[in-house]
Design a protein that fits this description.
The structure holds 2 protein chains of 2 kinds. Helices cover 0% and strands 52% of the residues of chain A. Chain A has no helices and 12 strands. Chain A is globular. By secondary structure, chain B is mostly beta strands. Chain B is globular, with a radius of gyration of 14 Å. The chains are: A mainly beta, B mainly beta.
């Protein structure tokens, strides 16, 4: 079975400060890891993914994430947060043993960036 | 065109009504998905279609009936729903099939906000 944990329900950060959203995962075999963002009353937007290769992945809107195999983590980061980054963020994982392209999502982390 | 569209945006229905949700994509994706999302919760997978064939049904009640008429369209037929079925229903699509694990991301539509009275 595969699972994802996002240990923080909410992260508060001041505009201009670094933003980190934590994610840990559990899968059998090699993971495919994804970050999505959801704005109110909208669908999910893809931010970035890790498949293989460089552990530091760069994505949309200045976000990046670091894959750490030993710690089974895939934390999302942004060097300087904007008020417009306030949204709900989901980490997701898929493994070689997941049938049908099934994604497993974490519980989500609400990010609030204050001016 | 890198967009998944869903209609209607909002739907209010009674427990005896029959309605349908529609989803369309023109990205040439051959995998399409229905998710249900409650407020402040992650999406829950309902159905997966691969090459217009149902490949996953996550034990969804029969009052939800999916249909994939062609490679671009996905419908969700609703009948005799319960108030607890009120949620945001999301459609998504991706490259890849159910026969192998895909590392391709899913593209989500904006959702249909369903309220069952």
């Amino acid at each position: 079975a595969q699972s994802v944990a996002q240990p923080e329900d909410q992260v508060n950060v001041a505009e201009g400060n670094p933003l980190t959203v934590k994610c840990t995962y559990s899968v059998s075999g090699n993971p495919y890891l994804f970050w999505y963002v959801q704005y109110p009353n909208r669908g999910l937007q893809f931010l970035l993914k890790y498949i293989t290769g460089d552990n530091l992945v760069k994505g949309s809107y200045g976000f990046e994430a670091e894959f750490n195999k030993s710690q089974t983590s895939f934390h999302l980061k942004k060097p300087s947060a904007l008020v417009s980054d306030s949204a709900l963020y989901f980490c997701a994982v898929r493994s070689l043993k997941a049938a049908g392209n099934k994604l497993t999502f974490g519980g989500g982390t609400r990010v609030l960036v204050k001016p | 065109d890198t967009e998944v569209t869903q209609t209607p945006k909002h739907l209010v229905m009674g427990m005896t009504n029959k309605k349908s949700l529609k989803c369309e994509q023109h990205m040439g994706h051959r995998a399409m998905y229905w998710y249900k999302q409650k407020a402040k919760k992650p999406p829950e997978l309902m159905f997966v279609y691969s090459y217009e064939k149902l490949s996953i049904n996550e034990s969804v009640p029969s009052r939800f009936s999916p249909e994939c008429p062609n490679s671009s369209l996905l419908n969700l037929h609703l009948h005799a729903l319960q108030p607890e079925d009120s949620a945001l229903y999301l459609c998504a699509s991706s490259q890849g099939t159910s026969g192998s694990v895909s590392y391709n991301e899913q593209f989500f539509g904006p959702g249909t906000r369903l309220t069952v009275l």
